[in-house]
Amino acid sequence: MTSTVPTRRVDPAELQPSVRPDGLGRFGPFGGQYVPETLMPALAELEAAAAEAWADPAFTARLDHLLRHYVGRPTPLYEAERLTAHYRRPEGGPRLWLKREDLNHTGAHKINNALGQALLALRMGKQRIIAETGAGQHGVATATVCARFGLECVIYMGAEDMRRQALNVFRMRLLGATVQPVTAGTATLKDATSEAIRDWVTNVETTHYILGSVAGPHPYPMLVRDFHAVIGQEARAQCLEAFGRLPDVLIACVGGGSNAMGLFHPFVEDAEVRLIGVEAAGEGVATGRHAATITEGRVGVLHGAMSLLLQDDEGQVQEAHSISAGLDYPGVGPEHSYLKGIGRAEYAAVTDAQALEALQRVSELEGIIPALETAHAFAWLESLCPTLAPGTEVVLNLSGRGDKDVNTVAEKLGDGLAG
Amino acid sequence: MSVAATAGPATTPTPIQQRFAALRAEGRCALMPFLMAGDPDLSITAASLLALQAAGADLIELGIPYSDPLADGPVIQAAASRALASGTTPGRVLAMLASLRGQLTLPVVLFTYSNPLLNRGMDSFCREAAAAGAAGLVVPDLPLEEAQKLSAIAAGHGLDLVLLVAPNTPAERMARIHTASRGFTYLVSVTGVTGVRTSLETRVGPLVQQLRQLGPTPVAVGFGIATGEQALQVRRWGGDGAIVGSALVRRMAQAHQSGADVAADAGAFAAELRAALDQPL
Question: Distance (Å, rounded) from C-alpha A259 to C-alpha A263?
Answer without folding.
Answer: 6
